[in-house]
Amino acid sequence: MEAASTAVLLINKWAELETVAKITHEKGKKNESQAANGTSSFHFNDVFSLENEGSDDMTTLIDKKDNVFVMSNKKSKYPVLQVDLRLISDLVVVVVSAAIGGIIFSCIGQPVIVGYLLAGSIIGPGGLNFISEMVQVETVAQFGVVFLLFALGLEFSLTKLKVVGPVAVLGGLLQIAILMFLCGITAMLCGAKLSEGIFVGCFLSMSSTAVVVKFLVERNSNNALHGQVTIGTLIFQDCAVGLLFALLPVLGGNSGILQGMMSMGKLLLVLSIYLSVASVLTWSFVPRFLKLMIQLSSQTNELYQLAAVAFCLLSAWCTDKLGLSLELGSFVAGVMISTTDFAQRTLDQVEPIRNLFAALFLSSIGMIIHVQFLWTHVDILLASVILVVVVKTTFAAMVTKIFGYSAKTSFLVGVLLAQIGEFAFVLLSRASNLHLVEGKMYLLLLGTTALSLEFSCAGFPQKAAIRMRRKYPSLKLTDCCDL
């Protein structure tokens, strides 16, 4: 009896009990007359339902955070392979809908990112509600974040950053600091938390590397002065993403300022140690390891591809265990390989995996977007997008002008950086997990980001350049068309 009470005390001390609702799905009896003559009614959602004669004992668990888990692994005295058919069905629906959305938006000349988001919003709970296992789908989709940042690290180039170093690094840092300060002050004046305002400033400071670089390359402007400044700033922002991920747990904490500063100091110490170890491994281990993988996979790239993915996941796992973030670890893994001669080869191998999981991730983000919310608050969203474009253009142009660039170059850089980037979705997802941003603010930032990307790719930069041509008649037409 004493041993039992001791065990109970230990359990209460070390374990956190959680109330879980258990739901057992029992198939109702069919109408015998309908079953006999085959006249049972047809429902469109039945196409996506996998309920069959053997699924009547499927159990669903709902935790205290309203997360839904399907217990598909039945007990058996024999070791057998278990298959979650519902999850497979959901993944098929997500991938197919993302492909359709991406194809449609690509055909009309718009970014496929918006197509993925829209497809997710249509099939999600706020739309047709085709997805049964949201938690499982979102968990698998998190690999998209890991591989996105891994590929971003592989494309990292310190040489490109040095070309326009001062304006890219100092100017980019100044833009982030200004937006963080303004949003923090605004949040305090509006009665919101300072940490939420600082996050919104970080969130708004990100611009879309993929959209802007593609835009510049299509117009042969990537080697122009404004193109170099813009790309340099984008590279710095991409680097800052990793550090912002390390900052989010501090912002999401409930401790005071002193405790937060101590946590930040500890975090920076751990980060410094990790980066030091990573830098040593970069020149001592990584090149030899990749060279060995190439030799072992001379006939096929299968082993090299698997080794690259494993290296990325291992680095992400290490940073997560150190209290940093999965995203930072995957980015550092990419940067480590980018310093070797195998960066492009690795990127070629990882890119298909990245594209698949990135589409899955963006679609899962879209599933959170409620179409009704967007329609109800369309006026607020449009006003937010216009405000974001004006504010980001103004501050980016002002900062660029401070570093001695002409008014034309400064304005073009500001226009190109006016949207919110796709990695803001990753930041927003992480902030939501930390309960830093919730509710309507989350949906508002989500919708504003999607609309700003759409607005950016709908021809705003070209029209802005034409207006600038009218304002400065001395400029050559080709100067503005170079945008």
Automatic annotation (TrEMBL):
The chain crosses the membrane at residues 91-119, 139-158, 170-192, 198-217, 229-248, 268-290, 355-375, 381-399, 411-429, 441-461. It is found in: Membrane. Keywords: Antiport, Ion transport, Membrane, Signal, Transmembrane, Transmembrane helix, Transport. Pfam families: Na_H_Exchanger. Residues 95-454 form the Cation/H+ exchanger transmembrane domain. It is a multi-pass membrane protein. The keyword Transcription does not apply. One of its GO terms (molecular function) is potassium:proton antiporter activity. GO terms for cellular component: membrane. InterPro entries: Cation/H_exchanger_TM, KEA4/5/6-like, Na+/solute_symporter_sf. This is K(+) efflux antiporter 5 like.
